[in-house]
UniProtKB/TrEMBL annotation:
Location in or out of the cell: Endoplasmic reticulum membrane
Pfam families tied to this protein: PigN
Signal sequence interval, chain numbering: none
Species, as recorded: Gossypium aridum (American cotton)
Superkingdom in the source lineage: Eukaryota
Transmembrane segments: 23-52, 72-89, 95-111, 131-152, 158-175, 187-205, 211-231, 252-273, 285-304, 316-349, 389-411, 472-493, 505-530
Domain GPI ethanolamine phosphate transferase 1 C-terminal as annotated: residue spans: 13-498
The protein's name: GPI ethanolamine phosphate transferase 1
Family the entry assigns: Belongs to the PIGG/PIGN/PIGO family. PIGN subfamily.
UniProt pathway: Glycolipid biosynthesis; glycosylphosphatidylinositol-anchor biosynthesis
Keywords for the protein's UniProt record, in alphabetical order: Endoplasmic reticulum, GPI-anchor biosynthesis, Membrane, Transferase, Transmembrane, Transmembrane helix
Biological process per Gene Ontology, one example term: GPI anchor biosynthetic process
UniProt function note: Ethanolamine phosphate transferase involved in glycosylphosphatidylinositol-anchor biosynthesis. Transfers ethanolamine phosphate to the first alpha-1,4-linked mannose of the glycosylphosphatidylinositol precursor of GPI-anchor.
GO molecular-function term, one example from the UniProt record: mannose-ethanolamine phosphotransferase activity
Length: 546
């Protein structure tokens, strides 16, 4: 028995040694790959979307940079050839070659920008200490926010504290900048506090059909309020630019009524689905076809709405509501409305800051009228303060995953909860009592999370148009933030412990790795809805108005 125990111990140690033989090398190479990718993104954003001393970077060093580029590429190719030979002699898997090749390629591209990096360092050394302090403070705050998002994967209540604090700070800041009677500071505070309640609720959503039906009424009321504000609040200077001020006849006068009707029909269909599921009756084919029609047709209607910012976002809010309601079983339907209110609060906050900034510039004797240079597509260059846009988006994007449950724990989905959702949505064709496949179980929560994320990216795109910042540049910053979180999750992956711990650690890393591609696909989809949004006052025109 003693010999058997010793043999088992030696076998486990040998297995561990075999599995971790290349661990240090692979972790180092993958980490260097992520770091090189993030550095490359920063350099690209600085060169393409920021207003740095262009004469230093583009004129004086353009000729010398070409020769250095060739040298860097030659060194990179030689180094890659040596590494490939060594990996081939070691009989390493093809994936090892891919890791090394990508990392070496990215670092070669970074070395190509040696002159730019050197000039940038001189530029920073020549700036005042206040600018460097602001830059360091921005970096520290960004890392803290991203680390909080990392920990939120295991502790949903962090979002509660986040929205409570942000709601209070944002309302106080607005109160000092704009009149309190405008109602915007109070609205921002209340919406953030309302959204903070959902991450205190249990991750296992209880079945509550009445709450889903009430959520449909809530969505219609929010849409009706948005429609009224779009028509009446335009005279308010703090709503300037986001309302529809055209007095012409709308293209489709009955569009809002049709969207509200579809939201009401989706609530009725949820009630009928629940009634059939309660008595274990099979859903009729006509019932399934109606759900398909309501979910699909409602998402097409926002394309025919007016192209004002508030009117288009209000139509998108109503258009994505029916499929979300059809997938809901409880309080997550209320979460959809709460998240929509917070997105409107974010737009109002940015619009108020924009108005205050323009007033301050107009009262500065006109000396700063030419401060912002513009890119070719009439968007201004990015500034340090614009980092708040991708950071805010990251918080809202991730709260969509955790506001209605622990989406990050793929291995711990409750079958009964998801089964209820598949029966509530008869288009899944699982109302006959059969046990749904695991792929379907994981697809259903991802579907209604996607509807929330689509709405957020539409708001994100609208804000970039409102502030005239480059949308692609902000997207690159979103990728940068996602990569910082991905590196953290990479070091948190476990290969020991319970299957739940191992599965969750891998799920967290996988979700963050896929988030970059997921966001890119959603950006491409939401561009269909937001590409023709028109802002009443651009920064150039607004100077004439002010």
């Amino acid at each position: 028995m003693q010999l058997s125990e010793n043999l088992r111990s030696l076998a486990l140690k040998g297995l561990h040694y075999f599995q971790t033989y290349d661990l240090l090398m692979l972790m180092a190479m993958i980490t260097l790959g992520y770091i090189s990718w993030m550095v490359f993104l920063v350099l690209h954003v600085l060169q393409a979307y920021t207003l740095l001393p262009g004469d230093i970077f583009r004129k004086e060093e353009a000729v010398r940079q070409k020769s250095n580029t060739g040298k860097a590429q030659l060194c990179g190719c030689l180094f890659m050839a040596v590494v490939s030979v060594l990996l081939f002699l070691e009989r390493s898997p093809p994936l090892y070659h891919a890791y090394f090749a990508m990392t070496i390629f990215l670092w070669t591209q970074i070395l190509n920008e040696y002159k730019f990096i050197k000039a940038l360092w001189r530029y920073l050394r020549g700036r005042e200490s206040d600018y460097v302090i602001k830059l360091l403070a921005l970096g520290v705050v960004s890392v803290i926010i991203l680390e909080l998002l990392v920990h939120s994967f295991t502790e949903r209540k962090l979002y509660t504290w986040c929205f409570l604090i942000v709601g209070a700070i944002a309302s106080i800041y607005l109160y000092k900048s704009i009149p309190w009677r405008s109602g915007i500071p109070v609205f921002v505070c209340l919406t953030c506090w309302f959204l903070s309640l959902f991450t205190l609720m249990p991750a296992e959503i209880p079945d509550n059909n009445k709450l889903v039906n009430a959520s449909g009424v809530m969505v219609i009321v929010i849409g009706l309020t948005g429609k009224w504000l779009d028509l009446k609040a335009g005279v308010n200077r703090f709503w300037f630019g986001i309302c529809n001020h055209e007095k012409r006849q709308p293209r489709f006068p009955m569009l809002f009524q049709l969207q509200a009707l579809l939201v009401g029909l989706s609530s009725v269909m949820v009630f009928l689905s629940t009634s059939h599921r309660t008595v274990k009756q099979e859903l009729h084919t006509i019932h399934q076809l109606m759900n398909w029609f309501i979910a699909g047709f409602s998402m097409i209607l926002p394309l025919f709405s007016e192209n004002g910012l508030l009117s288009r976002l209000n139509s998108i809010f109503l258009g994505f509501a029916p499929p979300f309601l059809l997938l809901s079983i409880g309080y997550e339907a209320v979460f959809y409305g709460a998240l929509g209110l917070v997105l409107i609060a974010w737009i109002l906050f940015e619009n108020s800051l924009l108005y205050v900034r323009k007033v301050n510039k107009s009262s500065a004797s006109g000396k700063n009228l030419g401060e912002h240079a513009f890119l070719e597509n009439d968007t201004r260059y990015l500034q340090l303060s614009d980092m708040r846009i991708p950071l805010t988006f990251m918080v809202l994007f991730n709260v969509a995953f955790f506001g209605t449950g622990n989406f990050a724990s793929i291995a711990s989905f409750e079958i009964s909860s998801v089964y209820s959702q598949t029966e509530l949505l008869p288009i899944a064709a699982l109302s006959d009592g059969r046990t749904p496949h695991l792929q379907v179980i994981h697809t259903i929560p991802a579907c209604y999370v996607s509807f929330s994320n689509l709405k957020e990216i539409c708001a994100f795109s609208a804000i970039t148009k409102l502030l005239e910042v480059p949308r692609i540049g902000c997207y690159f910053l979103v990728i940068l933030c996602s990569d910082v979180m991905t590196v953290h999750f990479f070091f948190l992956v476990k290969n020991t412990g319970s299957w739940m711990e191992i599965g969750n650690s891998i799920s967290h890393f996988g979700i963050m790795s896929a988030q970059v591609v997921f966001v890119l696909l959603l950006f491409a989809l939401t561009n269909i809805y937001t590409k023709d949004i028109e802002i009443r006052s651009g920064s150039r025109d607004s100077r004439k108005v002010m």
